[in-house]
Amino acid sequence: MIPVNRPLFISGEAKYLTEAIRTGWISSEGPFVKEFENKFSSFIGKKYGTAVSSGTAALEVAIGAIELKPGDEVIMPTFTIMSCAVAVVSYGGIPVFVDADAYSWNMDVSQIEKKINKRTKAIMGVHIYGHPCNMDAIKKIARKHKLLIIEDAAEAIGAEYKGKKCGSFGDISCFSFYPNKTITTGEGGMLLTNSKHFKDRADMLRDLGFVKEKRYYHSEIARNYRITNIQAALGVAQMKNVRKLVKIKRDYGALYNKLLANIPGLQLPAEKPYAKNIYWMYGVVLDKSTGFNNESFAKKLAYHGIGTRSFFYPLHRQPVWKKPQYRRVAEKNNGNFPVADKISKQGLYLPSGLGNTEKEIRYVSAVIKKLLI
Ligand SMILES: *Cc1c(COP(=O)(O)O)cnc(C)c1O
Questions:
Q1: By CB atoms within 10 Å of each CB, which of 130, 153, 190, 353 scores lowest?
Q2: Does 246 share its domain with 235?
Q3: CA distances from residue 153 to 5, 89, 160, 163, 299 in whole angstroms, order as listed
């Protein structure tokens, strides 16, 4: 079976891991954590980095850093990963969902403003599947209504909006280093910001809410979201090759674009004029006229030895909101989200990890062509 993702280690990982073991620095106190924070933040173009244990933790710490209060609202796409909503709900906030744009699969920015009210505190912009969301539009709305921007750039490491890196726009931006992301630490994540205030709060919130000057003294409830020196060792090694890794993503995207062009009923990823897409995971959406939805198509591909993954199940459809304690989330989001509903049933992504091979991509494309033409 061709896996939907295979990670790639170009050089240096084993050396840095060995160094962590040899020196005995394995916890979050080790020197690779700061080195990784510095290397990654300067690559994206932000002043400060706080490395944490996952992308989900990064989002949660970001929400804590902006001091979201119970009942405060954060606007976000419904077509995204659950982590975005979890971060807000964990502080008693209410995620407010916006439908997707049918072409880029990102949040439809024209629907943001009508969701804003006096409880709205922030907009969470998520760059879906490696394609930047419309940052100018989000910035304009945020400025007009005095809202903060949290940028979830987990799927867009190396992607650019108008020539600037995704993750360089938000008041706080968040990243994941899960193995299917552009660089990986196994599990891990990071928040970036230019604000010393947010940086200090993030450092405190990843570490049990320790008051800086006084150990075992806590002024807030916070969890342990520290990353280890072992994970950061991987991160430092991966950063040496990050430009190569981004190029492989783009090359694989371009290859799929070429091989899958002009197949009736098959929608390929967009690249808007302002965007440099990294094709994080190469997604396709099947028109209903093909006779397939993502599940039946995935079965056909699996029969040919090809692994795939269905698109996100949208947040407004998550059964967890039926629980009584989340009634307000359900009530707030009882509208219609037709685009997200459609792409979540008709969309799936194809083998496109950094460690997948060109040969695999050619085989996958040939099988898809045979099935649809
Ligand atoms: C992967 C991902 C996350 C979560 O990261 P984890 O490290 O798996 O917790 C958050 N947001 C987006 C958009 C992601 O793709």
A1: 353
A2: no
A3: 19, 20, 10, 15, 31
